[in-house]
Design a protein that fits this description.
The chain is an alpha/beta fold and 419 residues long. Helix content is 31%, strand content 20%. The longest helix is centred in the last third of the chain and has 22 residues, at 283-304.
């Protein structure tokens, strides 16, 4: 039998002490190791491998068409734990082949040891592990020309959406506000009793003190974003706040949630991997548990994009920590507000409680309407069959209040960098 190295002895000792109930921080501190080192070897010990404490060889022990028994056992073990959700590291994780690759990398396996997604799927099938039935989605018969924005940078466009109400037994309704970066795929959120404009603005003001402010913020037409549906040219407090910090708000077409597909995809993951997997007693309880879910989602999304060489929006703008503003007395600042609309049977669209005639030749088509508050115009654009954006109508859009200039002095500017 080969004599154990000092490192191997320390790994075995750490796991043995952990099994006796000793606190992890005491174990890895006394051994002069990191928290990451400790949990790596605790996780490795649970794989079922006979010599789990040994380093993996840097060269693959298998051919492309053949996986050794240890690697197959690891895949089976991870898949099983992902499905059971008993391990805190896997509690809110996806269960597919990519998720298994992600967790194998976290356990310290080299890229040469980690099987391809197709191989992992064969292992799952060969071991008769339970397979989730794919969710059936309604196909959207769209021309794919409803938008004229194609974001390329991290933090260029964010999508924001309220989910709920969902009900906690014995407590009451809960609504969860979710934000997701279209390109960078990072998510954030917070839970509230009500869907309200005040809650949405409070969340964003705190978020922008810790994260970059996007160029575009895309939302639906709910009252918590758009405001009332009675008075023409009614600019909500939400819109005013966005303009104040230099954001162009994009309102998707009414009753077309698939246009907010990035955040809607996350909403489904929130329901499936978090809401249905946990039990909550009140608002404080769900707020205490949710950050772990967001953290695991962000870690996995960052891993999936690790080879994309994405660039961040430049310059990065954030609010200072001491920034305050009365959200009930927001001025109307120069900027742009966008609306995606379907032309109705009379050749019209509705924008902020007013109708504008686009033309009967566009009936049933998606158009893009942009209000420029400083110029006081409303311009209609159409993305034609050749994917060329054409201006088809322009209207005078007289606003009866003073339009203030945009203040760049309120921001902390941070130079952009690759992520």
């Amino acid at each position: 039998m080969t004599e154990l190295t000092l490192e191997e002895k320390e790994r075995i000792e750490a796991v043995a002490r952990h099994k006796t109930g000793e606190k992890p921080i005491t174990i890895y501190t006394e051994l002069g190791k990191s928290r990451k080192w400790f949990y790596k070897w605790v996780s490795r010990s649970k794989t079922g491998a006979k010599e789990w404490y040994k380093d993996h060889p840097r060269t693959p022990e298998h051919t492309p068409n053949q996986i050794n028994d240890e690697i197959e056992q690891v895949v089976v073990k991870i898949r099983t734990e992902l499905m059971e959700k008993d391990n805190d590291e896997y509690r809110y994780s996806f269960v597919g082949a990519e998720a298994i690759q992600f967790h194998m990398e976290k356990l310290g396996y080299s890229s040469s040891d980690i099987p391809s997604t197709s191989t992992i799927k064969r292992i799952i099938k060969r071991n008769k592990l339970r397979v989730n039935k794919p969710e059936r989605y309604k196909r959207v018969h769209s021309k794919g020309r409803y938008t004229i924005i194609d974001p390329k940078y991290v933090d260029e466009m964010h999508q924001l959406d309220f989910v709920g109400p969902r009900h906690i037994k014995g407590y009451g309704p809960i609504n969860s506000l979710h934000l997701k970066d279209v390109v960078g795929r990072q998510v954030a959120g917070r839970q509230y009793k009500a869907k309200s404009m005040g809650n949405a603005m409070g969340f964003l003001l705190n978020y922008w003190k810790q994260h970059p402010i996007p160029k575009y913020l895309q939302v639906d037409n709910g009252m918590c974003f758009a405001g009332d549906f009675k008075h023409p040219k009614s600019f909500s407090r939400f819109v005013r706040l966005a303009l104040y910090v230099g954001i162009e708000v994009v309102f998707i077409a009414p009753s077309k949630p698939w246009m907010n597909g990035t955040v809607e995809e996350f909403n489904k993951d929130f329901a499936r991997l978090f809401w249905k997997k946990e039990r909550f007693v009140n608002l404080d309880d769900i707020r205490r548990k949710a950050p772990k879910f967001f953290e695991q989602q962000n870690e996995f999304n960052a891993w999936k994009l690790r080879n994309k060489n994405l660039e961040s929006i430049n310059p990065k703008r954030m609010l200072p920590e001491d920034f305050t503003i009365d959200v009930n007395k927001l001025p109307l600042v120069a900027g742009k507000i966008h609306f995606i609309r379907i032309v109705d049977s009379n050749g019209r669209i509705s924008v902020l409680n007013e109708y504008f005639h686009v033309g009967k030749e566009y009936i049933g088509e998606y158009v893009w309407a942009t209000i420029k508050s400083r110029k006081q115009t409303l311009t209609i654009y159409y993305n034609d069959e050749k994917l060329q954006v054409r201006e088809i109508k322009k209207f005078c859009y007289k606003i009866s209040e003073r339009i203030r200039p945009h203040k760049h002095s309120i921001f902390n500017n941070i130079s952009g960098k690759k992520v």
